[in-house]
Amino acid sequence: MAVRYITVTPITNLFKPATRAFGDIAIVGKVDGAPDAASGPKKTPVPITNPDSVSHKSNVAGAGQAVDSKAWFKGDLGKSVRKALSQSPGPTTVYAVALDPGDGANALSLALAEVAKLDVQIVTLANTGLTSAAGKAEIEDGAPSSWRPMSSASPV
Predict the structure, then answer these.
(1) Rounded distance, CA 73 to CA 41, Å?
(2) Per-residue pLDDT, 138
(3) Running DSSP on this structure, what letter comes out for residue 101?
(4) Distance between CA 88 and CA 21 in Å, rounded?
(5) Nearest Cα residue to 100 out of 33, 26, 25
(6) Per the domain annotation, does 34 fall within a domain?
(7) What are 105-126's pLDDT values in tens digits?
(8) Is 51 among the domain residues?
(9) How far apart are CA 40 and CA 56, in angstroms?
(10) Which of 42, 80, 90, 106 has the most CB atoms within 10 Å of its CB?
(11) pLDDT in tens, 20-76
(12) Could you tell me the pTM of the whole model?
């Protein structure tokens, strides 16, 4: 029996771009304050792989609860972590670092100092633009001199 060959002539480029997860990221941000204050740890990087069930030694009472619950990071930080983990492909691990309102003007720089100790590929600020109302780059105010924004991309 003879084998028949079929010639296929594509009418498009037939190119499929490669997609891959980009590793670990850190998100620094605010959590809700009083009267419905989030009780998660402040300035402590919490590794999260599942937004619906977070466990960490810094908050034993919140074990198994969602990242955006009152027990963890309710507010901008929790929403940003959930959004980051819902992407496809998503990050392997998201480190959530809550700002400590007690640190006042130094809150961002102290939280970023904790992030600097992590092995992450991307650092972002939850629900925060790269420029303030005055036009000065907010990230430059509290970040080490080696950290500078690469673009004016929208925050997570």
Answers:
(1) 8
(2) 52
(3) G
(4) 8
(5) 33
(6) yes
(7) 999 999 999 999 999 999 999 9
(8) yes
(9) 10
(10) 80
(11) 767 899 999 998 876 667 788 899 999 999 999 998 898 888 889 999 988 899 989
(12) 0.71
Take residue 50 and report the two structure tokens written for it: 């599942």
The domain spanning residue 105 has which CATH number? 3.30.1490.450
**Whole-number percent of the chain with pLDDT over 70:** 74
Cα–Cα–Cα angle for 93, 97, 98, rounded to 5 degrees: 145
For residue 24, how many other CB atoms are within 10 A of its CB? Answer: 17
Domain that holds residue 30: 24-56+64-142
Number of domains present in the structure of the chain: 1
Q: Which amino acid is at 114?
A: E
What's the rounded Cα separation, in Å, for the pair 40 and 96?
A: 10
Tokens describing residue 101: 């309102």
**Looking at the domain assignment, is residue 14 inside a domain?**
no
Domain presence at residue 13: no
